[in-house]
Amino acid sequence: MSDAQAQDHEPSGLNRWALRIEYDGTGYLGWQKQTDGTSIQSLIEAAASKLVRNRPVPSITAGRTDAGVHAAGMVIHLDFPDDAQIDGRQIRDGMGYHLKPHRVVVLEAAQVGPEWNARFSATWRSYRYTILNRPARPGLMENRVWHIKRPLDVDLMQQGANHLLGPHDFTSFRAVACQARSPVRTLDILTIRREGELVMIDTKARSFLHHQVRNMAGTLMMIGAGLWPVEKMIEILEAKDRCAAGQTAPPEGLCLMDVGYPDNPFIRT
């Protein structure tokens, strides 16, 4: 079974728990398990397994973050053996103990029914891309921001972003290797604001294409820096060509902020 098939596999007779987690993606291979190296998924499943005498505990995530990308509110579900006597506090604290010293933390856990799925039950995801906009390189925020020395005009960036709101063919903003069947996505939110030296790009949609947020950030940077006019965003969308858009912004500036569900399991905890 491939990793993609394993991600969507629905085991039966198991005890399902939803978890909200945060992690610093620096130095990891991203969410998905790989043959070599350390992934967030491998760390999570290993820690969960230790709670049930090293029996396997498979996981499914709301979204697969790339290497170097962070998460403040990633949601996953774990399928523990049906005879496991465990509660939310034990999962949070026990996994927290076994995840040390890795920068991966379980924030909360809630039991859910077998029909609940971290990926397919989700109705939206939100991301933030952060740019440090100053001449000096980052010290305290290294590996958490994209450093841009040239001054950025956030008003111009917002004007460009407005052209991306709603449903569009985002071929120009998808990775060449993106495996999504359709390039059409609907952006509900795309806002740019400045807080001192930080420029933050916040976006929300039901789902995103591979590298879509990072490719949008790279294009918006070009507009904010005055290198491209606002109107070029329309040309980029209409081109339906990845080469028409800006660079793929580096992964360290991206953070998955939250995932939404019609029946949020964590409200009951």
UniProtKB/TrEMBL annotation:
Pfam families listed in its UniProt record: PseudoU_synth_1
Catalyzed chemical reaction(s): uridine(38/39/40) in tRNA = pseudouridine(38/39/40) in tRNA
Annotated ranges, domain Pseudouridine synthase I TruA alpha/beta: 161-262
Entry EC no(s): 5.4.99.12
Location of the active site: 66
Primary enzyme class: isomerase
NCBIfam families on file: hisT_truA (TIGR00071)
Role: Formation of pseudouridine at positions 38, 39 and 40 in the anticodon stem and loop of transfer RNAs.
Subunit field text: Homodimer.
Xref: PANTHER family: PSEUDOURIDYLATE SYNTHASE, TRNA PSEUDOURIDINE SYNTHASE-LIKE 1
Protein name, as recorded: tRNA pseudouridine synthase A
Organism: Gluconobacter cerevisiae
Lineage, top ranks: Bacteria, Pseudomonadati, Pseudomonadota, Alphaproteobacteria, Acetobacterales
